[in-house]
Specification:
Blueprint: H1 17-73, H2 88-93, H3 101-107
């Protein structure tokens, strides 16, 4: 009885052109997918920032409009929290504020 050693497959030293192209196409597709995911994430993040900025601007604009109404009805510069005058220095910095500093802290 003779023992035969099984033949092991030997790997070629080089890839065929077809194999190389397949691997390269896979790598290219993977990298393009990664780039698209990064671009989409960045766009979503930028959209979130822009949305937050827009919300802030709209909120401040509403506060400005409310300050115009207070000027019209004679309540501008009077704190809506304690009914005392808001210091002029505060109104110079934040002309649309409806509160003095202590009342602003309490309402926040």
């Amino acid at each position: 009885m003779s023992l035969e050693t099984p033949q092991t497959e030997t790997r070629p030293e080089r890839l065929t052109a077809h194999e190389a192209l397949q691997r390269l196409e896979h790598e290219r597709a993977s990298r393009l997918t990664q780039l698209r995911a990064i671009d989409e994430a960045r766009a979503a993040a930028e959209e979130q920032v822009m949305s937050t900025q827009k919300d802030t601007i709209q909120r401040v604009l509403a506060e400005v409009e409310a300050a115009f109404a207070r000027v019209q009805d004679g309540n501008y510069g009077i704190c809506q929290g304690c009914a005392r005058p808001i210091p002029v220095e505060r109104l110079e910095i934040l002309p649309y504020t409806p509160f003095c500093v202590p009342c602003q802290r309490c309402s926040a």
